[in-house]
Amino acid sequence: MGNSSAVQRQNDHDPDTNLYLPESCISSIFSFTTPRDVSRLAAVSKLYRSAADSDSVWNKFLPPQCDEILRRAVIPVQFASKRELYFRLCDSILIDGGGKRFWLERSTGKIGYMLSARTLAIAWGNDQCYWRWVARDDSRFDELAELKFVWWLEVWGEMDCRLLSADTMYRVVFVLKTNADASGLDRCPIKFSVKAPGVEDMEFEHSLLVGRQGRHTIASGWIEVVAGEFRVLAAEDIDDASSEIAFRMKEVQYLKRGLLIDGVKIEPRPT
User: Fold this and answer.
1) 140, 236 Cβ separation under 8 angstroms
2) For residues 152 and 177, what is the distance between their CA atoms, to the nearest angstrom?
3) What is the pLDDT of residue 1?
4) In angstroms, rounded to a whole number, what is the distance separating the alpha carbons of residues 216 and 55?
5) CB 244 within 8 A of CB 159
6) pLDDT in tens, 158-175
7) Who is most buried in 91, 149, 239, 270, counting CB within 10 A?
8) Quick one: 208 exposed, middle or buried, by C-beta within 10 A (0-12, 13-18, 19+)?
9) Which span out of 46-50, 144-148, 250-254 was modeled with the highest average pLDDT?
10) Distance separating alpha carbons of residues 39 and 35, to the nearest angstrom
11) In this model, does residue 185 exceed pLDDT 50?
């Protein structure tokens, strides 16, 4: 009687002895949590680790368009399991001929993109008198845009919300830098704006050379300016008329030089 009670107490505290719950059932339960939760649960026991490594779990965390993204990858993505694929995508991959980066947020599986300077529209961007395209080791892409000099500075682009994670808050971040010859960028603030379906247009002015809390951070030497935020609707609520977001930076009053543009990130808002 005493031994039976001791065994029961052990069963209550050791997940590996709860054999009445099949591993496939545990995997199914795990798939309704988050990648962060599954990674933590895998440390509980051997049974949980085996269930957490199941392809059925990690397949739920991969986006519906995953196969299409893999076809667009510049370098084929090699993986032996869906878990390995998930974490490979968390590191970001180049797609669309190297013009974009795609990634998954590690803890949530939410989709992020970065559009290279080449994929953006830049006023006079193809005129070598005003801009040049250079390769730099600190760029996320093969080349970036470097401003020689210009009065009319304007950069803009757009994104289809249907490519992002549904029912998620996103932010638009311009990734910029100034070189040693930079001038004119502090004489007048640059206007940043975002237009998204269902919300008022967002616009603010910001000086790249004078930090402003909440708008301007430095990451690996790059100035990251948050141009605005928007919510992607649930998939069933998005139609052709409400699928596009547009973003822009503009300053046309003073002569400017020495600005580097790496691209624009469309990423889930940090929580």
Assistant:
1) no
2) 18
3) 43
4) 40
5) yes
6) 999 889 999 999 999 999
7) 149
8) buried
9) 144-148
10) 6
11) yes
3-state secondary structure the chain: CHHHHHHHHHHHHCHHHCCCCCHHHHHHHHCCCCHHHHHHHCCCCHHHHHHHCCHHHHHHHCCCCHHHHHHCECCCCCCCCHHHHHHHHHCCEEEHHHCEEEEECCCCCCEEEEEEHHHCEECCCCCCCCEEEECCCCCCCCCEEEECCECCEEEEEEEEHHHCCCCEEEEEEEEEEEEEEEECCCCCCEEEEEECCCCCCEEEEECCCCCCCCCEEEECCEEEEEEEEEEECCHHHCCHHHCEEEEEEEECCCCEEEEEEEEEEEEECCC
Residue 217 tokens read as 């951070």
Reading the block at residue 81, the tokens are 């399991």
**Mean pLDDT rounded to a whole number for the chain:** 88
Contact 204, 192 (CB under 8 A): yes
pLDDT band at 80 (very low <50, low <70, confident <90, very high): very high
pLDDT digits (tens, 9 = 90+) for 210-240: 554 446 677 678 999 999 999 988 766 666 6
Could you tell me the two tokens for 62?
């991969």
Q: What gap in Å lies between CA 115 and CA 264, rounded to an integer?
A: 5
Q: How many CB atoms lie within 10 A of CB 20?
A: 7
pLDDT in tens, 98-112: 999 999 999 999 999
